[in-house]
Every structure is written in C-alpha cells, then in structure tokens.
Amino acid sequence: MSKSALQFLHNGREVAIFVDGGTSLLVTLRELIGDMTPKFGCDQGGCGACSVLIDGELHLACLTLAETVSGRAVETLDGLKDGPNLHPLQRAFADNFAAQCGYCTPGMLMAAKALLDRNPSPTRADVVEAISGNICRCTGYEPIINAVLGAAAGGRTRA
Amino acid sequence: MLELRKDIFADERDDNLKEIGKGTQRQDMLGHVTGTSTYFDDHKLQGMLHLKTVRSTHSHARLRRIDTTDAERSPGVRRIIRGADVPRNLNTLLSLINFGIDDEPSLAVDKVRYKGEPIVAVVADSPREAYEAMARIRIDYEALPSVFDVEEALKPGAPVVNETYPKNTFTYYDKYDHQKLRFGDVERGFGEADHVLEQRYQMSPIEHAPTETNGSIAAPDTNGRYVVYTSTQALFFSVDTCAKILDVPSNTFHFIGGTVGGGFGGKVDTITEPLAILGAMLTGRPVRYMLGREEEMQYGPPRGAERIYIKDGVMRDGRVVARKVRAYFDSGAYTRLSSYAAVKCAAHLPGPYTIPNVYGDVYCVFTNRTPATAMRGFGVTAMDFAIECQMDKLANLVGMDPMEFRILNAYRDGDMKAHRREAKNTALIECVQVAAEKSKWPLRDQFKRASSRKDGGGSRAVIPPTPRDADAQRAAALQQRTTYDRAPAAAVREAPPASQPSPPPPPRPQAPSHGAARFSSVFGTRRR
Predict the structure, then answer these.
(1) From A92, which residue of chain B is nearest by alpha-carbon distance?
(2) Measured distance CA(A72)–CA(B195) in Å, rounded
(3) Which of B46, B106, B511, B518 is most open to solvent, judged by the fewest CB atoms within 10 Å of its CB?
(4) What percent of chain A lies above the pLDDT cut of 70?
C-alpha cells in the first residue's frame, strides 16, 4: 500500500507523517499522532464525537481524508486548554454538569468553540443549531446548551 | 420509613454527610472536559492486532461447511479463530449464580440462531486486512425455518430456536415454562366487576446506542496474565464470565474499566472480552475487538421486545377488582438476562396498585431475533407502559379523572401485595399529588387529602383464598443441568409440588461459586 507524506499544524505544532491512502483524519490523529481526544463513535459522520476544527471550521474527522488537511491547521480538544488553565468553555461544561459519560464531550466542545469563535453572543437557537450534529446519549442537551450560553456570557463580562 | 442499619456498617464510613443543597464536582469531570478520561479504545499498545468477526447472514441456519483456507493466506492475518478454539464454547451469563443452562457459544459451530451471530473471528495486523480476509471466508448455510414472534414460537410445531430449550421457553426450576403469580380469584373478580377490559400491548426492541460502541483490548502481561481494557459496565461479572469461557482462574486477568462511553445496560453481556483475550492468548500480541456502529446497532443486544395482554375488572366507582396479565419476553436466540427480566416482571405485578385478585403468567421466549439484554428497568418498563395505558383506559371507561383513579387504586402502607409481601414505604399517592400540583391539574379535595400512610392494611392486608390451577402443570422437557464446573455440584433443587399454585421464590444461588453470587449489580439491585 502506498504511503504519502503529510504535513499539517496540529494544535499549533507542525507534524510530518506518512499515511496510507484512504486513511481518515480520525485514525491519523488517534493512531499516528496519539491525540486521543477526538472519539470514534460511528465512523460514518452521524454522531459528531470526532469533531475537530480545520482552519477554524468544524469538520468530522472520520469523514475527512487525512491527505486533505495538508498544510492546514487542525485543532482538537487537546489544544483547547491554555497551559494549565481551562478554556472558558471547559470551565462552563464542568460547572454546568454538561458531561456525564464524557464520550461526546470533545466533539461538543469543538462544535461550541467553532460557534463562539464566529459568534461570541449566540442565542439559544444558535447554540442548538451549532451542536445539532453532535449526539449525546446521557448528559442531555439542556446542560450542554446552558454551558455554551454560560461560557458566551462569561466571555462578554470579562471583555 | 426506610431503616438504615448503621450498626451493620458502623465501621465502613461516616454517613453523616452534609452534601444536600450544595454542588459537588464529579471526580471525573476534569478528565471529561479536557479529553483526558481514558476509555478502553484510548490505549494503543505496541504490536496491537485487530479482531473482527464474520457474522451470520441468516436468522436460522445449519452451518454445513466453513472454509477459511483462503483467508488464512490473506495478507496481515495472524490467526483465524473458530468455535473449536474456544475452551468452553458454551455459556449463559447467569450461570455464575447457577441460574439457567449454558446455551450460547462464543462462536457458532453447528448452527446459527440469529442474523449477525458470530461464526469466525479474524485477527489481523489492521482492521482493513481483517476485513479483506473476512471476505475470503466461505460459509455454506442450510437455511432453517425461522420464528420471530413470541406467540408463534410457543405454538406446537414451531421451529426450535435453541435446542437447549426445545419448547422455546426458558425453564425455571428445571420444571416451569413460565413465571406464575396467583393471588385471589380473578375469574370471580371479573364476574363481579361492572366492566371488563382486555387489551394487547407491545413494545419493540430498543437499542441503547451508546456513543462509544462495545469493545475491549486484551494484552499479554507478565506471569502469564492478561490485562484487559474494556467498555464493560459489569467489570467483575465480565472477569468471571471470561474465566469460565476461557477455562482459566479469574486471577489470570487484570481488568481495567470504569470509564465507559455510555452503557444503559448494553454493556453487561461480555460479548467482546472473551474473543479479545483468546486472540491475545493465541497470538501472544495485544488484540483489540471493537464493534463498529452498524454491528452495535444491528447485533449488539437491545432491550427485548415484549407483548403483554392485560384483562381488568373494574367497578363503576373506579375500584379495580381483578387483573389478569399474560406477558411474553422476547429473549431472542439466547437467554442472556431475559430469564431474570421475566422474574422481575412477575414480581412487579400488578403495578403499584392494591387489587384483590391478580393472575399473572410471564414467559421468557426464544425467537430467531438478536439476543436481548438489560436496559434501564428491564422487566418492568414495558409492563409499566402497558399498565399505565390500561389505567388511563379504565379511568375513561368509568368516567373518572385518570389521576384520581390512580390515587383511588394506589397501594398504601400495610396493604398485601400480590406476591405476598406487605407494602411498605409506598408513595404513589404522594407522587400523583405532586405531579398534579406541578402540572396544575385539579384534584378534588378527598384525593388531595389521601395519603399512603392512611387507610391501608386491615382488610387490604388479607391474603385472599386462591384457587389452584385447574389444568395440570405442563411439564417442561427433562434437561441436563449444566453448572460451572469449578462450583460444588449443584444440589438437587427442592421443587415445589406440581399443583402448588403459590408463586415460586425468586431465583437464588444455592451453591455460590467463588463469590460470584455477591455481584448484586448484575441483578438489578442497582440501577441499570
């Protein structure tokens, strides 16, 4: 099987690897780079557990061919913290009990980050729309929506 | 009130907690929001292999021939595993408490009994190479007639799904083909009732659909042991199930779990661990076996389907005087935990109501459908759905408000329940009152004043005369009882006399094996 060289920015750090043709970004991140924060949930773009940002835009890593991120910037939950400090979204998720089993949380947080990056003052409907591609089976969506709204409000007060 | 026997647990912990009214952060929350909580699949081990299973394309078929020669030569294949490679290729989950007969192979050998049943496991360097090898495996099936309906399965001449239970019903106490509840005389109750209503209810199987699918990774450890990272909900139960299937002492395994991406009952069946460990034993390498989403949805065990018939006799004033229930649990092709669900269902009848005449027959039935398992309140949930629909219909029939109708019929402290235990700490009346208040549903004063602590007991505490069943007990086929062979030989059970109509006692391990009987979480004393 032929491998191709691939270079991209992973949470701001340059990585250079070889991938088999057809390898997904999810497998690349988890197995070749060792970033376990994007999760395998369905491998068919149905659940959002593998959501990552590519050049700031929300994507499903399981449906993204690794070669397509060449030269681009990929952000995962692993890069969300600022050193030892939680990102306001992470703090808000913790404070609002917005994670139960935690498996959908990485994808939820990336979807929420994509929203707040382009719209710092979302309405409730905006938040619902933003996480509509992410399935949660135990926490329930209400605490998650409240957490995102809380993080947005907190950001505004600090600004 | 609930009595806490603190004297028994005096040295365990101080229970004078002052936690109510203030938030307490979960200990795993920081891991969840930073993505560092470690699920089983977050372990990547040096030289890890991948296991996939070839699954039956038929609901019911004899396996004429399985040809793996081509697959063995497929690139990247390290090992093909067949049923004959599994040390003890027959198990039933509750055998750990000597409840039920071993009826399910890890890999099918002579017959498949449901679509998706695993037949051959392929261990390869990568998932892709495993799939490529699977495509080269040839299986000759001889299709057999299937049965998918619980009542069809009980008819004479129906296809026998599982030869362990030739009548397509689970056998209780080596003898009974269903769970029976008899309390008072329902036929007399129907005769005296102003209205009789009989209805049929049905619930389809429900998939838990956890965001993380079932899976495990097993790796050879030092001293001949194996470390197993698993998504199981029942870690110790899984350890012992694997020890039995692989025929090794349970201290061969070091199971690591606890961080589970959603379970809801769908991760108690130990469906991936035995094969992952066997793969590690046969290859000497770490082996990962994780269900894909399609496998999880199609072949992962669901909440079982149920069909329920309820016939009630009700008086014009709203009192339910007789309730007769016939319920069928669709266990699918194997027992797993449905035998226990039927016991729980029988114990739940007639719902949280005091009814003087109750009659229940609950069957655990085998069909050619996916084996069912635990799911939050299984055994009770569908029956409650049926009972509460029935209560609404009865209220409508007698022209009563449905909430007041429930308060009127609710059990109260001191009442005798149909399974002959006194009702204690009842609170249905209070629940209905609060629900009415919150939803601004008007209740008349007499129902607002009702209390679970008042007007119970007395004549309501009496066990009514209960006629014996007229028809002779239909004897189930004589079966060989199989027990876990490391356990002491099963003592001869004290079977109740054939004509004894009182309900059989709940299943009880009579010969606890290596402490397995203590795993109460498997039996629903904890929430699923």
Answers:
(1) B33
(2) 73
(3) B46
(4) 96
Label residue B483 by pLDDT band (50, 70, 90): very low
| Topology of the domain comprising B42-144+209-299 | Aldehyde Oxidoreductase; domain 3 (3.90.1170)
A101 touches chain B (CB under 8 A): yes
Cα–Cα distance for residue pair B504/B173, rounded to 1 Å: 9
Considering chain B, what is the average pLDDT of its residues?
A: 90
Closest partner CB to A90 (pick from B33, B42, B211):
B33
- Looking at the complex, does the CB of residue A97 fall below 8 Å from at least one CB of chain B? yes
Enter the CATH code of domain A88-158. 1.10.150.120
Reported confidence tier of residue B15, pLDDT bands at 50, 70, 90? low
Mutate to test the interface with B, among A3, A24, A27, A40 (most CBs of B within 10 A): A40
**pTM confidence score:** 0.88
The answer to whether the Cβ–Cβ distance between A34 and B264 falls below 8 Å is: no
- Average pLDDT (B316-332) is 98
Q: What is the rounded average pLDDT of the residues B100-110?
A: 97
Length of chain B: 528
C-alpha to C-alpha distance for A21 and A1, rounded to whole angstroms: 7
**Does residue A32 sit at the B interface (CB-CB below 8 Å)?**
no
Indicate yes or no: CB of B264 within 8 angstroms of CB of A137.
Answer: yes
| CB-CB contact of B489 with B456 (8 Å) | no
Q: Which chain A residues touch B289 with a CB distance below 8 Å?
A: none
User: Residue A155 — very low, low, confident or very high, per pLDDT cuts 50/70/90?
Assistant: low
Q: Please give the CATH superfamily to which domain A3-79 belongs.
A: Beta-grasp domain (3.10.20.30)
Distance, CA of B250 to CA of B264 (rounded, Å) = 26
Interface predicted TM-score (ipTM): 0.96
Instruction: Look at the domain B152-206+302-461 and name its fold.
Output: Aldehyde Oxidoreductase; domain 4 (3.30.365)
Q: Which of residues 37-56 of A touch B (CB under 8 A)?
A: 37, 39-44, 46-47, 49
Q: What gap in Å lies between CA B278 and CA B242, rounded to an integer?
A: 9
